[in-house]
Amino acid sequence: MATERTAEAYHLxxxxxxxxxxxxxxxxxxxxxxxxxxxxxxxxxMGWSGEADYVFAGQGQMLQDGEERYLATLLTQPDDxxxxxxxxxxxxxxxxxxxxxxxxxxxxxxxFVNAPAEYNLPRCVAGEGQCPPEFCQGVWDYVDLLxxxxxxxxPDEVDALWQKVGYDFDPEYFDLAAANRRxxxxxxxxxxxxxxx
Length: 197
What we know:
Layout: E1 5-16, E2 23-30, H1 35-46, E3 54-58, E4 61-63, H2 71-74, E5 81-86, E6 92-106, E7 123-128, H3 139-149, H4 155-165, H5 176-185, H6 189-192
Antiparallel strand pairs: 1-2, 1-6, 2-7, 3-4, 3-5, 5-6
């Protein structure tokens, strides 16, 4: 096995606000992750495509894409929070809470495939609820979609909606393995490897 390195792993609780049923994830990322790579990790853990715009808000300021800021400079103590908005025009607002910081062993690039899960950063530890379809215009539109999917008054409309979301869509289902596969596909030194490796 390759030589282990250590990194500060930031354990985060990410909750899609106003979702009912609740949609949340627990993830671990490196503390030195940039905002753009944090966005990619959060989107992958939640189930978003990651292609939409995003905004972070923290420490009383809006943090735009391209700013040279890092997670460790924004969240320093347990219970510190950031707001993360995915697709601001649609308003997918997430609360990101730091649960703990732990020094963890990690492996350099190229050694993730057969490594134990605890060596992989970023990684998803737990979660609940399916990510809403991205065509929904925010939480309230998603709630309306769920209501319409269970409406038996217009079977043709219901069938068309099921075709759009996929017949296997289950709003209460969360696939931890799929979330981790999405996270492991992410590229970039800030997301799982020490710089320069």
